[in-house]
Structure formats: C-alpha cells, structure tokens
Amino acid sequence: MKLLWIFITVVVALIIVGYIYISSERNWGGGKMTVSSVFKNGGEIPKEFTCDGANVSPQLVINGIPRNARFLAIIVDDPDAPIGTFTHWTAWNIKVSSDSASIPKAVPRKTSLMIQGLNDFKRVGYDGPCPPRGHGKHHYHFRVFALDKELTLKDGSSRKELEKAMRGHIIAQAEVVGIYGR
Question: What's the pLDDT tens digit per position in 1-42?
C-alpha cells in the first residue's frame, strides 16, 4: 500500500511539473505576436509623433515574441504617399530577452538600443507622418519583425538592404496602423 501512495504521489508531481512547463511555454511566444502604441490600431496618430509636432517616434510595445527570436526589426511606412510607399523609419538588431519588448518614445538618431537605416527623407532614424496638405488621411504601418539572428547591416543602410538581410530569418511579424492627415 505504501508503494502505491509513493507511485501516486510521483505521478501527480510529474503531472503538475508538466503542466507548469507547458504553461510557461505558452506564455513565452506561444500566442500571436502583437504590437501596440499610444494610438489604437486604425486610430489617429497624436500630433507629437508627426512633422507638425515634436517629430519623435512613439513608444511601441511588442508582446508574444516567439521563444526562438533573437532580435527585432522595425519598418514604418506610408503606402498612401502620392509618390508610392514612403519609408519613415527602419531599425534593426533590437535585442530580445523575453516574450515582450518595449521600444521607448523618442528614440534618438544615435542610440545603443538599435541600428537605424535611411528613411525616404534621406535621414537616418525616425521621421514621422507628414502627408501633403489637403491629400487626405494617410495610413502609417508600424511593422515589427521577430528575427532568428543579428543582421550585419551598418547605420544608414537602405530599406531594400534591410529587407534583403531579413529574408529567410523572419519568424513572426505584427503591425499597428495609425492614421494622420493635414
């Protein structure tokens, strides 16, 4: 009888340990990766983050980062621009250490947090929404990519170079879209 109780206790302990392990796997990258900001998806981007305000980058919060992700990359663009898709920000080699990350507000052009690329204003770093006056509301896509490796691109690399370097290394992506018009 004593052996039966020991056996039952061991089985119950193994079930509990297995459940805890499976739960922790689900909590770190087990769901869909998401990105959020100070504006809701499909909502108005506050003036502070545009050329009509302080022109600083908004905070981005990323959740559900897959366990095998090592770095993040960002591409922000405006597909409604009259000259075609206009790139406002590219950044990469943002180190991942858990299932969530936060990109702070007002990332400076030179920072140890990430490497930044050349935008279509021909500057390195973030330049916010600045649609032509009277052109209506534009949609700004803030896309975050989870990557399985560090990229070997230098500051000021182009969006095309970033996209080429990411090819085959994207393991998840998410986006939040903000709207702005002048």
Answer: 666 556 555 544 445 544 444 433 334 445 799 999 999 999
Task: Select from 167, 105, 175, 170 the least CA-distant residue to 140.
Answer: 175
Tally of residues, the chain: 182
Convert the pLDDT of each residue in 135-178 to its tens digit. 999 999 999 999 999 999 999 999 999 999 999 999 999 999 99
Which residues, 6+ apart, have CB-to-CB distance to 11 below 8 Å? none
The CATH code that applies to domain 31-180 is 3.90.280.10
How far apart are the C-alpha atoms of 32 and 1, rounded to whole Å?
48
